[in-house]
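<amino_acid_chain>
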Amino acid sequence: MPQSNLTRRFTGAVLAGVASLSLGACATMPGSSIQPGTPISQAEAQQGAQYHEQFVQEFGGAVRGPQADYVVQVGQNIAVQSGLATTPDAFRVTLLNSSINNAFAVPGGYVYVTRQLVGLMNNEAELAGVLGHEVGHVAARHSARRQQTAQRNQLLGVLGQVVSGVLLGDSALGRGAANLLNTGTQLATLSYSRSQETEADQLGVNYLRTAGYDPSAMSTVLESLARQNALDQQLQGQQATVPEWASTHPDPASRVAAARNMAGPQAGGVLNRENFLSRINGLTYDDDPAQGVIEGQSFIHPQFRLTFSVPQGFTMSNGAQAVSITGGNGQGQLASAPFSGNLDTYVQQVFQSLAGQGGALAPQALQRTTVNSLPAVYGTARVNSGQQQVDVVVFAYQFSNSQAFHFATISPVGGAGVFNPMFNSMRRISAAEAAEVVPRRIEVVTAARADSVQSLARRMAYTNGQVERFRVLNGLSGNAELVPGQQYKIVVRSN
């Protein structure tokens, strides 16, 4: 990824916690109180245009080429069903280069979906359903209804009020950290209520029906999202459930059932499965090496030539702003900031940025050391959250005269040592190691008579959970088996 992008990576990582079950954190901008279906106003169009580039930048940039063109076509055709505009080209649809399962739309006709979420889908109707759901939020002017209750509750550069619940939990540590670390971009990402999510699902189903798609696609894509979330948590050693406080959205099972009921027992229409699979064949899946990749417990960035590992019990999320690190005993991020060549000054400035505008935060002392031949400086600040004290650590490394990276971590008092293995694991990688980092991509294959779920799953470019990943990726629930002659997705390494 471009060097400047690493400082923006943390945003998508947290949104993923909501997106995996909610068709995105559903980013919104302030809207009006006009009734659903009212055409886009000039003010809304200007509003969407104002924030478009910032949204694209936060989510890794826009994908270009035939795959993106296809997504744009489907998105414009479903969006026009909303009555917000009379022609498809009134909507600007963007395929985002992000490994986060996310989709959102903002007033003004701007619609977004990540390539990761598109890769999880299994037919064109599902793609149209997801985009229709997000357009439904805009058509219903949900953002205006939520504007008064929205809060810019940002943590370590994270957007939105979802942060303290999803990332840190509703704990004393989480509340203190959320109050303390309020830096980052000033865009507000608002979450929706349960009733608004249900209304958007209903509008999305209606749009599918009027466009000639099978409206049951809304329930199948929601089911895939729920199963992917459960699998992610299983692979990370977490409970495959979403706590009530972590989301205002309906729980996955009831939402899938509700969407199925909305479609009705006589649901029918176009799925366009084969066309969809042929159009997304070759789409990048998981992390883009240009943005760094997560492999097991390690993060590797071939462009910046760095790697580090997190301890067992901790997980990482690779977002558009930073790499987030989450565990039961602390949370943190890897990021970068402007560097003038003085690590002491760099660390002090990071602490100050964590305090936010008008705040003050400084380390008790600065310690100099060397980590795997990298000059390093670190410091700790003890902060009273109001509920309990927490330790904030900034640990920075100099990679060149103009480039530094740092961890910023939060842990209960005296517990910062849990991150020592991670701090000490940071190192440069060789050119040969960097060259070995290649992207994963979706490959569409046709099942032969001798193929089975197990035989195709063995071709998946993962060292764990191959069968489970294959089933979720292809919407194969229960004990469903392959149909000879039918196409399926596998994830392989690019040559």
